[in-house]
Each structure stands twice: as structure tokens, then as C-alpha cells.
Amino acid sequence: MIDPCERCEEVLQPFLDRELTESERLEAESHLDTCSYCRKRYRFEVELRRYVRQVVVEPMPAQLKERLARLARQTPLEA
Q: Is the residue at 79 inside a domain?
């Protein structure tokens, strides 16, 4: 028998992408309703996705780009 938290971990990304069947979605929602650990993981993933969308939309200020480029030139690459 598979651990419900392991199963939730397997379907979390497809759940967020709305790629699950109706029965899989209901199973995931039911587990998230009763498991605080998986619910925290779900919230983290939702916030991470929100952050990534925001970063992609907001242009990086020119000063920050210049500073990062300067730092990159000054930082030696290690093998």
C-alpha cells in the first residue's frame, strides 16, 4: 500500500497544473484537507509559482543588471 503523503507528492505538480482526472483530483483534495504537512507543501508550491510568475513579468532594473554583470566578471569560476 502506498503512503498517502507519497501519493500526494507524486500528484502535487499535476494537481497544480490541473492535469489530474476527476477522481485523482478528489483524492488529492481529500488528502490535503486532512494532512497539515502536505497542505504546507501545497501552499509552498502555490507561493513559489506565484513568485516565479511575478519575477518573469517584472523587468530587472538596469542598475541591478549592471551590478550583477560586474560581480560576475569579478568572481572567478571554480572547477
A: no
Name the DSSP letter for residue 17: T
- Whole domain around residue 66: which residue ranges? 4-74
Evaluate if pTM is beyond 0.85.
no
For the chain, 79 residues long, give each residue's pLDDT as a single digit of tens: 789 999 999 999 999 999 999 999 999 999 999 999 999 999 999 999 998 888 777 787 889 888 888 887 776 655 4
55 assigned to some structural domain: yes
Q: What is the dihedral of CA 38, 42, 43, 47, to 10 degrees?
A: 150
**Residue 30 within any structural domain of the chain:** yes
| Cα–Cα distance for residue pair 31/39, rounded to 1 Å | 8
Asked whether residue 21 is assigned to any structural domain, the reply reads: yes
